[in-house]
Amino acid sequence: MNNKNILLGITSSIAAYKIYELIRLYKKNNFNVKVVVSNNALNFVSPLVLETLTNEKVYCNQFEPRVEVEHIGLVDWADIFVIAPISANTISKCAQGFADNLLTSIFCAFLGSKKPVFLAPAMNKDMYNNPIIKENILKLKNMGCDFIDCETGFLACGTQGVGRLADIELIYQKTKRLIYQNKANNNKKVLISVGGTKEKIDSVRYISNYSSGKMGIAIADWAYNLGYDVAIVSTIDFKRNYPILKVDSAIEMLEELSNQKFDYLIMAAAVGDFRVEDVSEYKISKENIGDCFELKLVKNPDIVKTIAKNKKENQKIIGFCLADKELINCAQNKLIDKNLDYIVANDVKTALNTDKNKVTIIEKSGRIINIDLDFKDNIAKKILEVVCD
Questions:
Q1: Residue 113: per-residue pLDDT
Q2: Which residue out of 157, 292, 330, 388 is catalytically annotated?
Q3: What pTM value is reported for the model?
Q4: I want to staple 194 with a disulfide (CB 3.0 to 4.6 A). Which of 180, 216, 319, 353 is the partner?
Q5: Is 114 left (phi over 0), alpha (psi -120 to 50) or beta?
Q6: How far apart are CA 188 and CA 203, in angstroms?
Q7: What angle (nearest 5°) sits at the alpha carbon of residue 357, between those of residues 320 and 388?
Q8: Rounded alpha-carbon distances, angstroms, from residue 22 to 158, 160, 336
């Protein structure tokens, strides 16, 4: 689906070995990748491995015999230039306009092309905190370069502090956003609920469901890729570049969602219909009960119906319906009862704990859109194309 071209620069940092995994992610998701390395980067990565992973030659020498001017040809080919990791030395060269090797020559030409440039620094904490490096990073940001911040943790030099290369998954996600984003979406907020809620029984047990959260996360990722301001209210822990507001129960989810502003609310979470009336503060011991143990359940609030009661004119609310019989009829009834703009109907047999899904989107006007079986990542993009203006 992607068919986009990523030019990946690698400079001399011990973190360069992590870029093999970044290339694997790009290729797994059908991006075309070519790699350009600084001479000193070859102390940390192997051209043979890079060529095997990308199925392309590795570019390094600015003046090797060639048919075309490489730094111009590569700029024309690429949709984005990602340098990961970018060292303090290369940051400083790029900020000052040096073009003393193939990678910095490409950078100079790329910056002039107005295509996106994405930089992921990695270095020692004292180098990262050097005011000259800080000034050069700010200078590059003002020129239009996008950065992802270094992480804090244990560094290769044996010290603790800021300077670690950002998580590879986060670099991958931000690359997609820079390629696909429509800046007209930047001021529109998409709020998404994700995962199966957990209703406590005692201090260690809870009632939940089989929701993996994959569909909701895929929708959030694509909303982020397309340039929307994204936030997730989730029962699942995971790392992303957008805010993830962690909750467990249906009541916690309702409270968190009610406190958020949004243009689009997409209720992809599998919210439990019931909760335990009397939650034990301590673990219930089987020695203290008989062979039969009864729990009294009470209804949870209907989250999407509650929020929809106070929906503003410029807001859209999208619900999900999961059923194993009379799916479309069930979804149409919920669409009306809950005052939704759209509802996405899922069949239990295809939706739970799978990487693929097929859905039916029903609009309040009565229009029905069927999306055939596909990977959830692709389904997510198609859902957003329908429900977001």
A1: 87
A2: 157
A3: 0.87
A4: 216
A5: left
A6: 40
A7: 50
A8: 24, 24, 45
Q: What is the pLDDT of residues 340-368, one digit of tens each?
A: 999 999 887 776 777 888 899 999 999 99
Angle at 11 between CA 150 and CA 93, to 5 degrees: 90
> Nearest Cα to 337, choosing from 292, 363, 305?
305
- Cβ contact 14:44 at 8 Å: yes
Domain limits, CATH 3.40.50.1950, in the chain: 5-180
pLDDT tops 70 at residue 136? yes
CA distance 183 to 174: 14
Sequence ranges of the chain with CATH classification 3.40.50.10300: 183-387
What's the CATH number of domain 5-180, 3.30.470.10, 3.40.1190.20, 3.40.50.1950, 3.20.20.140?
Answer: 3.40.50.1950
pLDDT at 67 over 50: no
Q: Is 215 helix (H, G, I), strand (E, B) or coil?
A: helix
User: Quick check: is 145 catalytic?
Assistant: no
Task: Assess contact for 267 and 304: CB atoms under 8 A.
Answer: yes
Q: 161 falls in which pLDDT band (50, 70, 90)?
A: confident
d(CA 40, CA 374): 43
Which residues, 6+ apart, have CB-to-CB distance to 321 below 8 Å? Answer: 327, 330, 331, 334, 343, 344, 345, 346
DSSP states along 277-346: SS--SSPPPGGGS-S-----EEEPP-HHHHHHTT--TT-EEEEEEEESSSHHHHHHHHHHHTT-SEEEEE
Select the more confidently predicted residue: 215 or 158. 215
Name, in order, each residue with C-beta under 8 angstroms of 148's C-beta and a sequence gap of 6 or more: 118, 119, 120, 166, 170, 171, 174, 241
Q: Quick one: pLDDT band at residue 260, thresholds 50, 70, 90?
A: very high
In whole angstroms, what is the distance from residue 250 CA to residue 359 CA?
A: 24
Give Cβ neighbours of residue 356 (< 8 Å, ≥ 6 apart). 350, 373, 374, 375, 376
Evaluate if residue 32 carries a pLDDT over 60: yes
Answer whether CATH 3.30.70.380 is correct for domain 183-387. Answer: no
> Tokens 């929809």 identify what position?
308
